[in-house]
Specification:
This protein is an alpha/beta fold. The protein is built from 18 helices and twelve strands. It folds into three domains: 115 residues, 2-Layer Sandwich (Gyrase A, domain 2), CATH 3.30.1360; 123 residues, tRNA modification GTPase MnmE domain 2 (Four Helix Bundle (Hemerythrin (Met), subunit A)), CATH 1.20.120.430; 149 residues, Rossmann fold (3-Layer(aba) Sandwich). The strands form two sheets. It has a six-stranded mixed sheet with strand order 3-4-5-2-1-6. A six-stranded mixed sheet has the order 8-9-7-10-11-12, with helices on both faces. The protein binds guanosine-5'-triphosphate and magnesium ion (MG). The site of magnesium ion has 6 residues, from helix 10.
Length: 473
């Protein structure tokens, strides 16, 4: 089986549904091999890079498909190698026949992410940009796309490199201090070593630690924009859950009637909450199911399951009936089990057009969101609150000096590693320790940051990372 790391000619269908399909090829000898199955071999071999050649892909004398070939010459291509993109007719038959012809000519099937892997190996992109390519391909909203594009343009790479350089300066000051006794250095070089045993440029290291902490915190927000969240609408029968579901969706998707127990099977739909992909679930009303109604019982079981896995629980109270003991019991149990950041509860007083919450209730539940699903009031406020809860704002937003944010778990884990070792190096208990115990910790933090961009070699981690990419990238 082939593995990453060679430069043999490879090919893959990169797009295909619709009028046109795209087959991407690249690697050493690509154009030479392709000329062997192309109706105008000389035109292909002699054209300059970044041009398009028209002709036919041939199987000996037989025409397979009429195509346009975009030609790239090294190093001016995505991967830095010679390459060619074949635009052929869409659907599956033409692309499949061309791929077969390419295989016969000597092309290998590309591995997932192999083009981007080669781009990295040839110094075209750092690892944060490579990862942003995948984020971009799987972005579900315009906002998620915009964030990935910023990283593709190198915003995160620059940020990490800046932080790493700052830490490298600290490390070299420490090493200098180790190599030469203090009296051999002039005062500018040792500036910052406040007391014996402390290391020079401690302040700069502390600043780096602060920057890394907010960088690590940014992952939660970026992940939210990429993966989205699940909001489950729950409550007693007839509270207006389906009405709220429809109102948030701006369409009549779920059946609404005045009969309690209307929704039995749960329904899911997706909306964009200011760019956050939000999956909304309408569920069967929570009550003791009738004994002779297994369908309702199963529906209620499913409601509970969904609530258990939700990022947000929108608990709807029927304002016309008020809060009863069952509502109170649910709210109390939800709050008791709530661990920070998980299954956050939002209390909604619905049917405010008929009944406003009494003062005593407002006092007991100061975070109540008052709305009318049928009348369409209070929904904006609800969306605002959902977003705030999910983003954990305003604390997170305020702390953020970072523009790019971390887009991948790998980046977050390495940032956390750098934080851990830096915290250890800066720990007050270590003040008395000799600097040669602290220097290796600083080196470890510098290397972890280097691994994020790929400056520090990461060996087979690269293969694991790229194998998660999609084919054709
Ligand atoms: N006045 C008023 N009536 C509402 C409002 N929201 C829902 N209703 C009514 O309340 C009744 C129940 O609404 P649904 O949305 O079906 O309630 P549900 O919680 O989904 O009920 P189940 O599916 O039975 O659990 C319907 O008659 C709705 O028209 C509201 O904001 N104001
Ligand atoms: Mg319903």
């Amino acid at each position: 089986m082939r593995t990453y790391g060679d430069d043999c000619p490879i090919a893959v269908q990169a797009a295909g549904q619709g009028a046109l399909a795209l087959i991407r090829t690249g690697g050493r000898g690509t154009l030479e091999l392709m000329a062997g199955i192309f109706s105008r071999p000389r035109a292909l071999l002699e054209c300059p890079g970044n041009t398009v050649v028209h002709g036919w892909i041939m199987d000996k004398q037989e025409k397979i498909d009429e195509v346009l070939i975009s030609v790239y010459r090294a190093p001016r291509s995505y991967t830095g190698e010679e390459g060619a993109d074949i635009s052929c007719h869409g659907g599956t038959a033409a692309a499949r026949a061309i791929l077969e012809a390419l295989r016969k000519a000597g092309f290998q099937d590309s591995l997932p992410g192999e083009f981007t892997f080669r781009a990295f190996m040839n110094g075209k992109m750092d690892l944060t940009r490579c990862e942003s390519v995948m984020e971009l391909v799987s972005a579900k909203t315009g906002e998620a796309l915009g964030r990935a594009v910023r990283r593709l343009a190198g915003a995160l790479e620059r940020e990490i490199k800046e932080i790493r350089n700052k830490l490298l300066e600290v490390l070299s000051a420490v090493e200098l201090y180790l190599d030469y006794p203090e009296d051999e250095l002039d005062s500018a070089e040792t500036a910052g070593a406040a007391e014996p045993g402390d290391f020079p440029r401690r302040e700069a290291a502390e600043e780096v630690l602060g920057q890394l902490r907010s960088l690590a915190a940014s992952y939660r927000r970026e992940h939210l924009y990429q993966e989205g969240a699940l909001a489950v609408i729950a409550g007693k029968p007839n509270a207006g859950k389906s009405s709220l579901f429809n109102a948030l969706l701006h369409e009549d998707r779920s059946i609404v009637t005045e009969i309690p127990g209307t929704t039995r099977d749960w329904i899911e739909a997706s909306i964009s909450l200011d760019g956050i992909p939000l999956r909304l679930a309408d569920t069967a009303g929570l009550r003791e199911p009738k004994e002779d109604d297994p369908a309702e019982a199963r529906g209620i079981e499913k409601s509970k399951e969904l609530i258990g896995g939700a990022d947000l629980v929108l608990y709807v109270i029927d304002g016309s009936a008020g809060i009863d003991s069952e509502d109170k019991a649910f709210i109390a149990s939800c709050r008791k089990n709530q661990s920070p950041g998980e299954g956050l509860l939002l209390l909604l007083w619905n049917k405010a057009d008929v009944a406003e919450p009494p003062k005593s209730i407002r006092k007991e539940y100061p975070d109540l969101t008052v709305l009318s699903a049928a009348g369409g009031t209070g929904l904006e406020e609800l969306c605002h609150r959902m977003k705030s809860l999910l983003m954990d704002t305003p604390a997170l937003e305020k702390e953020h000096y970072v523009s790019a944010g971390l887009g991948a778990r790998r980046q977050k884990e390495l940032t956390e590693k750098a934080i851990r070792v830096l915290e250890e190096a800066l720990h007050p208990a270590r003040r008395e320790e000799p600097l040669d115990l602290i220097a290796p910790l600083l080196r470890e933090a510098v290397d972890a940051l280097g691994e994020i961009t790929g400056e520090v070699s990461t060996g087979d981690i690269l293969e694991i990372m790229f194998s998660r990419f999609c084919l054709g990238k």
